[in-house]
Amino acid sequence: MASSKHLVDPELAPLLDMLPTLQINAETLQAARDFMVEVSRATPMPDVPVQVSTKTIPGPKGAPAVPVQIFIPKKGAAKKPGYLHIHGGGYVGGTPDMGGARNRVLANELGCVIVSVDYRLAPENPHPAPVEDCYAGLKWLYDNAGELGIDTKRIAIGGESAGGGLTAALGLLARDRGEVPVAFQYLLYPMLDDRTSSVGERHPYAGEFTWTNEANVFGWTSLLGQKPGGKDVPYYAAPARAPSLKGLPPTFIAVGALDLFIDENIEYARRLIQDGVPTELHVYPGAFHGFDMAADTTVAKTFAGDALEAFRRAFAR
Q1: What are the extents of the domains in the chain?
Q2: Residue 19's pLDDT is what?
């Protein structure tokens, strides 16, 4: 693999010193999880008029209850949009706290109620546990929309990295079950395809930083409980394997050009468009996985504006 350091946006280069490339495997998993918690704790929380609370909701049938974080803005209409958020972490780590700062901003800026799901993690809880926990969160949001002040015609789902992959899987699950109408899905560098890094040629310039081929194989192996890239992987685990994307809600996809997921994200966007799904795709040059954490950089600000406008358009329908 060729080095892609010369392609990195100069404003993002300092972030590489703060975000070491994860050498994640069975031996280092707990350390990686602890690092994710440390990063989220170190992230300053914006001072905005948003009420934040935690709650435990019923889990999938026969499974444990699911903890959630709830963000309710103190301003806005009586009936607000609803957004189910799913955190990242390669399917093996992370907590809702990782999205706490952004969720506060979005709740305040959009006047929407946000529910962030603390789903079970692999490898202790492989597929379908994570996506079923997310579905339980979506169903609870929908069933309790009256109490939460949510307009059921304006429900969005979204997440980052593995959270984006779970969002895409949840979109397919909601479409197929037909119980909850989803108006919009937001996918930030989503982890969609177990065949990336395990089948075919590797991208010569993508995946050098923060989330690598090796980490990706570990994440997918943990979620699937088997080696990735095989024939019998369900599409509720790896959404890129879905035979049809027809009937999915309008979709926003954003990814950096140096992200390991660049090819699978572009291909998913192409397939969505081909299947008649209104789709907005953004590729940011010089950006690697997690680039948005450098919030003061030009590229991160551009992305944040693009995402905010996409949400606004979706909620204006």
Answers
A1: 5-316
A2: 76
In this prediction the pTM is 0.97
Is 203 one of the catalytic residues? no
Q: Which residues pair with 283 in a beta bridge?
A: 255
| Active-site residue flag, 116 | no
pLDDT at position 227 is 95
The 10s digit of each residue's pLDDT in 124-163 is 999 999 999 999 999 999 999 999 999 999 999 999 999 9
263 tagged catalytic: no
Q: Which of 4, 197, 289, 292 is catalytic?
A: 289
- Residue 281 banded pLDDT, cuts 50, 70, 90: very high
CA distance 246 to 36: 35
pLDDT at 21: 72
Taking the alpha carbons at both ends of the chain, their separation in whole angstroms is: 45
Helix, coil or strand: residue 250:
coil
Distances (CA, A) of 181 to 116, 132, 185: 18, 17, 11
Average pLDDT value for residue range 194-216: 90
Cis ω for the linkage preceding 128 (within 30 of 0): yes
| Whole-number Å distance between alpha carbons of 27 and 282 | 36
Question: 91: left (phi > 0), else alpha (psi -120 to 50), else beta?
Answer: left
What is each CA distance from 54 to 115, 166, 255, 289, in whole angstroms?
9, 21, 30, 29
Q: Out of 259, 263, 282, 292, pick the active-site residue.
A: 259
Among candidate residues 85, 127, 133, 161, the one labeled active-site is: 161
* 220 vs 44: CA distance, rounded Å: 31
CATH 3.40.50.1820 fits 5-316, yes or no: yes
